[in-house]
Amino acid sequence: MELSQTDKLRIQQANARKRIILPDGTELPKLGQGTWNMGDDLSKRQQEIEALRLGVELGMTVIDTAEMYGEGKSEEMVGEALKDIRNQVFLVSKVYPHNASKEKIKEACENSLRRLKTEFLDLYLLHWRGSVPLKDVVEGMEQLKEEGKIKRWGVSNFDASAMEELLSIPGGENCQINQVLYHLGSRGIEYELIPWHESHQIPLMAYSPLAQGGDLNSRLLSSASVNEIGEKYGASPQQILLAWAIHKEGIMAIPKSGNPTHTASNGASVEINFTEEELKELDRAFPAPNHRTSLDII
Predict the structure, then answer these.
(1) Which residue, 11, 12, 37, is CA-closest to 268?
(2) Are 79 and 117 a contacting pair, CB within 8 Å?
(3) Are 246 and 220 in contact (CB under 8 A)?
(4) What gap in Å lies between CA 41 and CA 32, rounded to an integer?
(5) N- to C-terminal Cα distance for the chain?
(6) Largest CA-CA distance found in the chain, in angstroms, rounded
(7) Active site residue: 69, 124, 182, 207, which one?
(8) Residue numbers belonging to the annotated binding site
(9) What pTM, to 2 d.p., does this model score?
(10) 211-235 tens-digit pLDDT
(11) What are the strands of the beta sheet with 90-95, ordered from one edge?
């Protein structure tokens, strides 16, 4: 998908309109960029870098990575991609749970900063909950903030009860976001977690919004409802899934793209605005559960 300058400007403007707001008042575009499984293959490095840079140009300025991704290789690739555009990007990385203790988190963060070739992270997330007490995680995150190594922090893969516990800890109220798996075929968070976040005005960041791989991905992409709605907008099934993932208030998504063509396609999805009837049709095809379910995690 080749984009003209007019196309790029239109997508930039759409990204500027569709935003989430963090508790500290920071505004972010609803569409960012993920980097899972990127950076491992050196033969793809230049293509991945071009994809990320195009995304930034299109207004997808949130870039999410983690020390776990390729054991630091993803962060190194991101650091290379942002060489002269770091000030245009809201940079996110995640710490392993076993590195989240007060004793280890500073070193883990400094290692991420070194690989990313930056002096600070805009957002640092606990990748998932481990054995380190949340009280210690919060204290470690707050210390990193005081030292200027991170601007703010959040969590990933937390359900409503874990979020409730987090907010009961001194400093826990400074959590800015929760990154969780969410897509049209995995809607369990709509029963309890999304209402919790709405009531506490803490946004969510959806990873795997395209349900990467497997039978579920195939069912979503081949769905008659998804494809019929796509035809109305001249959009691919992937674009419909991505537009759906960000249609609710307070939810952004971080699709991964390893090449500029996919990035352009992802970016264009931000222009899709569903009608109520279209949303109902997608609900009928892929209904949300009417009971509490365990959090989907990959």
Answers:
(1) 11
(2) yes
(3) no
(4) 22
(5) 29
(6) 55
(7) 69
(8) 127
(9) 0.95
(10) 976 778 889 999 999 999 999 999 9
(11) 33-34, 62-64, 90-95, 123-126, 153-156, 178-181, 204-207, 251-253
Token pair listed for 11: 């997508």
Asked about 96 being catalytic, the answer comes back as no
Q: Which of 14, 81, 113 is nearest to 257 (CA)?
A: 81
In this structure, what token pair is assigned to residue 29? 């575009």
CA pair distance 284, 259, nearest whole angstrom? 33
State the architecture of 5-285 in CATH terms: Alpha-Beta Barrel (3.20)
In this structure, the number of other CB atoms found within 10 A of the CB of residue 298 comes to: 12
Residue 62's DSSP bridge partners are 90
Give the residue numbers of the binding site for substrate.
127
- From the list 239, 238, 224, 231, the residue with the least C-alpha distance to 286 is 224
Per-residue b/e over 89-114, b at no fewer than 16 CB within 10 Å?
bbbbbbbbbebbbbeebbebbeebbe
pLDDT tens for 94-152 read: 999 999 999 999 999 999 999 999 999 999 999 999 999 999 999 999 999 999 999 99
Amino acid at 79: G
- Label residue 275 exposed, middle or buried (CB < 10 Å: 0-12, 13-18, 19+): exposed
Q: Are 254 and 206 in contact (CB under 8 A)?
A: yes
